Amino acid sequence: MSRVFTGPDGQDRCFWCEGWAPYIAYHDEEWGYPVSDDIRLFEKICLEGFQAGLSWRTILAKRENFRAAFDGFDYNKVARYTEADVLRLLGDAGIVRHRGKIEAVINNAARAQAVVAREGSLAKWIWSFAPEQPEHAPGDVPAKTPASEALSRALRKDGWKFVGPTTVYAFMQAMGMVNDHMPGCGHHARAEAARAAFLQP
């Protein structure tokens, strides 16, 4: 299987985003570009938890619904959710209605607050786990890496849920903590330039 495809605009992209315009936009505008905003980091780690057992395409199609349902993933608001909110969310057909994953988001919101109180920001702590050097050959993308295993262990020790090493690695890829755009992808060099210019929190 080719690791890239050529889009209608003539640009080569990672194979996984072929065939769906929102996927291509996500690939071009977001995936692999570094993020330091605490709310966006919290949102993404929660959405990756919802993805467990599903596809990212399913979650991406529902992302705006998730944002509306969870107060824009403002962890200070979500941490105050009660059982009434859990029932509200379980009745929301626009999201993935899985009690364990919904309760994990609420739990993780409180854990995020604790990280911010302790470290100053969620971004500062999360980014401290970014690998200094690539952990695999370009184009040979594993399901997890030593860095994702280390971050997963730290999150779970802190009480976070639905943060296994594979879930965490998908999060790290998306948030630009690593550059897993295929070598032939037109965004590989762009993402690398963005990472080089990024001021780590």
UniProtKB/TrEMBL annotation:
One of its GO terms (biological process) is base-excision repair. Pfam families: Adenine_glyco. It comes from the Bacteria. GO terms for molecular function: DNA-3-methyladenine glycosylase activity; metal ion binding. InterPro entries: Adenine_glyco (IPR005019), DNA-3mA_glycosylase (IPR052891), DNA_glycosylase (IPR011257). Keywords: Metal-binding, Zinc. Zn(2+) binds at C14, H27, H181, C185. This is 3-methyladenine DNA glycosylase. It comes from Thioclava indica.
